[in-house]
Amino acid sequence: MSQINKIREGLSRLGSAIETIAHTETPAVPEATVNSISGNAIHGGKITLLRSTGIRDQATRTSLLIEDDLVTVGTIDTDNILGDLNVENNLVIGGELIADKIKVEEVVSTQKHVASVDFDIPGDNSLIGLQWRKKGEATKQIVWRDNRFYISSDIDLHRDASVKIDDIPVLTTDSLGVTVQKSSLTSVGRLTNLQTDGDLNIDDFVLYDSGTTRFGIGVEAPNAQFSVASNEAEFVVDPEFDHLRVGAYTTSQLSLITDNKERLVIKEHGGVEIKGKLGVNVQYPGEDVDLQVQGAIRFQEKKMTVGQEVPTEGSYYKGDIQYNTNPSAGGWVGWVCIESGNPGIWKRFGAIENE
User: Fold this and answer.
1) pTM recorded for the entire structure
2) Do the beta carbons of residue 291 and residue 278 sit within 8 Å?
3) Which residues partner with 229 through β-bridges?
């Protein structure tokens, strides 16, 4: 059979089927009876143990009330709720609430976090964080304010804890970290084993200049390695290569004192005044003399010694004198050198009367 004939036969069958349907009469709907339900015949009354493909009613009392735009029910057991859900009153959840995101105006709860808390800060909000409120007390805060964290109360760390920056301790119970090198402290307590590098300034009065390695008290620019100064006078200690210079750098009188009394005074231009007894190689000068010497002395280039007899050795010069330590009646006060030499030529002088 050709393809065209097959199409013609199919169309003929389709036309016959349409004509049969058109002439078939609609069956009559039977009247509703006591044991049957048909169409819109349900009105009023009570249906018990209702069961259909999607509904199974096992209630023994009224549990579901359906009104216009309102359904009232005591307890719902459901797996899913599709679409938005608005709860106007309290919502009690006996188990866990699992949600991708919760947005609330206020949360009052005892919380336990097992993961991080992520604060998503809106662009126009400059204050976000945690707050603790108690009636009659100021609010306690840990908040992000502008570009920093703000904490309204004290932070009390455990005594073994520390404050760290980049995992390096900068503050512990009793010490600053080794990386803390700069400070603007204005008041500190007792310092022990203080070490400093560079310049030192104590109240603009005690100064150390690391560039010149000079230390000054009361002077901004010391004139020696160590200097103590007032407005017009400066005392210095200045060690040099092979000797030490100590004294007044300025044209000032220098006094050595004991018991707050001057004992030795060096005048402005070099004069020396000794106020008290002076002993040379003598521990306690006698109270009856101002000068006591244990040994020879030289006065106006003339040497003076003591002895029991004329010198027999040593260099002497004309005019040197040796006093007799064992004078006697009819003897002599001493001897005088009349010609320089070793020991030189000596003559007796100062005859002592006989008794």
Assistant:
1) 0.51
2) yes
3) 234
